[in-house]
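Subject line: Sequence and fold of a protein, written as structure tokens
Body of memo: The sequence and its backbone structure tokens, given next.
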Amino acid sequence: MMDITSPPDDADAQDAAAGVNARIAQRVRELRAARGLSLQALAERCGVSRSMISLIERGAASPTAVVLDRLAAGLGVALASLFDAGPPGGGPLRRHADQALWRDPASGYARRSLSPSGGSSALQLVEVTFPAGARVAYDIAVRQPALQQQLWMLAGSMDILLGEARFQLRAGDCLAMTLDCPIVFSNPQRTPARYLLATLDPLAPP
């Protein structure tokens, strides 16, 4: 018997993507305004075109992870800060259903924002599912102070190129990183990888 109580998966995914893109748009507008930056000034700081930033702020574009990381660097925050679910004071608990899920349109990797928006912790937790054969290269802009990040492999394997250092990670491995140089994430296997990212962002806005 057909289950007519559950909406189509594609419709759910589209609704979720639209919701996350709207939140990204709001966060970029808020952070830019808080720093007193014009669209042109932010464009010059992060290397993303003024027109693209305008589209992102209006929710009219689906930016890639690389573009969002450049924006985050220009705004002086961690990438995870652009996916915040809401303003501080939201409480110490974030239910699974309330955790924003976003998929990179370029590589297909999915990131779930785990950390509650309440409290004053600078620690941000993200769960990532990385497709087989996918690759994402970040040309990290130096932030002061540099972000500290740890990656804990939950399943599968990943190759991480951090500057000139290469690391092959398997399930259970944990890698500590200082994000002050280019970094490349790649999954050389035929199955997806899953890992937890913990980022300490001392400059995260209150």
About this structure: Residues 4 and 47 are 47 Å apart (CA to CA).
